[in-house]
Amino acid sequence: MKISLQSKGIILGTASGLAAVAFAFATGEIIQPKETPAARAAEAVSIPRDGTAENRGYTLFMLNCAHCHGNDARGDEGPDLHGLTKSDGRIASLIKNGIKGEMPSFGRKLTDADVQALIAFVRSLND
To answer: Model confidence over 98-112: pLDDT tens digits?
Structure first.
């Protein structure tokens, strides 16, 4: 089967147009400024004062917890952390040991001081 010169032009023109559209979408994704997790979180929760345990906990939360509990700690895959009634000891145990099949353990990653800072941040969500 022989394709006419006119048909080849239409095919090449269509392919070029599709490639240009794909490139435009890809470039737009690259050029558009990405919203950083810190910027999203700043809108979602009040960032605690610098130099406080709550601020250290906030930083740790954004690095380790926000991907499941949400940048606003209102829950996503993990539960809402506002208004927790669990004791500090129970919260520390959950952070360190996790919940089988639901939450990873952070006992090897976080120090006791880190866990206490996370608890301070979570408690500040009640304000």
So the answer is: 999 999 999 999 999
* Residues belonging to the chain: 127
Domain ranges in the chain are: 1-32, 37-124
**C-alpha R_g of the chain:** 24
Q: Which tokens is 106 given?
A: 């952070």
**Contact (CB, 8 A) for 62 and 34:** no
3-state SS record for the chain: CCCCHHHHHHHHHHHHHHHHHHHHHHHHHHHCCCCCHHHHHHHHCCCCCCCCHHHHHHHHHHHHCHHHHCCCCCCCCCCCCCCCCCCHHHHHHHHHHCECCCECCCCCCCCHHHHHHHHHHHHHCCC
d(CA 88, CA 66): 19
**At which residue do the structure tokens 């032009």 appear?**
9
Rounded to whole angstroms, how far apart are CA atoms 84 and 69?
13
Short-list 79, 77, 91, CA closest to 123: 91
Q: Name the CATH topology of 37-124.
A: Cytochrome Bc1 Complex; Chain D, domain 2 (1.10.760)
pTM of the model: 0.65
